[in-house]
Amino acid sequence: MLHRVGIVIAALLRVFLAPIFANDNVNENNQGNNGRNSHQTVSINNDKHVANIDSNNGWNSWNSVWDYGNGFISTRILSKKACIIAKINEKVMPDVVELPQLIKEKMKAGSRGPPPVELRFTVSETRVSDLALYGKSVEAMCRGIPTYVAREAPIVVASLLGVFLTPSLATDNVNENNQRNDGGNSHQTVSINNNKHVANIDTNNGWNSWNSVWDYGNGFMATRVFSKKSCIVAKMNKDVMPDIVVIPRLISERKKAGAQGPRPKELRFVVSKTRVLDLTSFGKNIEALCRGLPTYVAHEAERMKEANFFYSGSCFHTSILWIINIGFCGDVSFK
User: CA 63, CA 78: separation in Å to the nearest integer?
Assistant: First the structure.
């Protein structure tokens, strides 16, 4: 039940300047108290005054949008299949343009610095009927999902995650709003960690939202499907999927070309019915994405040259900003 929930807005991590769309990006693995690994990405769009926070921690994963322009934050909770919207407290939450500098200062001070501030919200039982009032970024995250309004509790408690990181890696970030054919709005963020050879793709499209990790170092990719509360793991086809270092340039070129550009490449995978019992063999990033969730292995479907894909079962499609379309097909019920 979401009658009373304490929302912790926490841990802004490593900061990088993106060379394409003038955004800041944060990418870091965090070791939990129980020894398990989690991963958080913070993408800052200074032009649109929006910060996207994606926390991959298996069953406890969540995604959040801070829309400074409209004055609202929204948090989508995987385990609840629900969204929570609250008003930004500008007196407590840092300005979007100040976040990179604040993180650097906290990193230098470490445990000797002042404790971070915690905000608490009480969630109402009334569902939101019209998401358009909260702006396109929030609408893209929560569309089709049970969504509730939260109001700030009067008590502000100090003590938050004391994770402050080193702004040292060269990381690229891409932030884009996509207008669908039905007029609905979706939002996709591609965060690239060149040093760790990992790309994180986060797509906010309401009920059809999904998150994906491409781990070039381990050679595997994983996709977490929000509506199914399930994960799919597959081996990367490096002959078809672009090299990590060229993704920003490809996206920029495809965006300029528009409909006149070449068609995106296409991959199809058939999802097996056997659940993965041990995620550690796929690396820490994939383990953080899928831990505690039903996870299945998918195998690439073969096709003859120039032939079209055909599959009689259901498919879940993921599209990475004009570059590649990936379909996961099978009769698995994802339960």
Answer: 8
Dihedral through CA 5, CA 122, CA 164, CA 244, nearest 10? 70
Query: Where is average pLDDT lowest: 96-110, 202-216, 220-234, 280-294?
Result: 96-110
Burial of residue 78 (number of CB atoms within 10 Å: 0-12, 13-18, 19+): buried
Average pLDDT, the chain: 76
**What string of H, E and C letters represents the secondary structure of the chain?**
CCCCCCCCCCCCCCCEECCCCCEEEEEEEEECCCCCEEEEEEEEECCCCEEEEEEECHHHCEEEEEECCCCEEEEEECCCCEEEEEECCCCCCCCHHHHHHHHHHHHHHHHHCCCCEECCEEEEEEECCCHHHHCHHHHHHHCCCCEEEEEECCCCEECCCCCCCCCCCCEEEEEEEEECCCCCEEEEEEEEECCCCEEEEEEEECECCEEEEEECCCCEEEEEEHHHCEEEEEECCCCCCCCHHHHHHHHHHHHHHHHHCCCCEEEEEEEEEEECCCCHHHCHHHHHHHCCCCEEEEEECCCCCCCCCCCCCEEEEEEECCCEEEEEEECCCCC
Which pair of tokens denotes residue 4? 């009373």
Per-residue pLDDT, 308: 41
Minimum mean pLDDT range among 35-39, 262-266, 273-277: 35-39
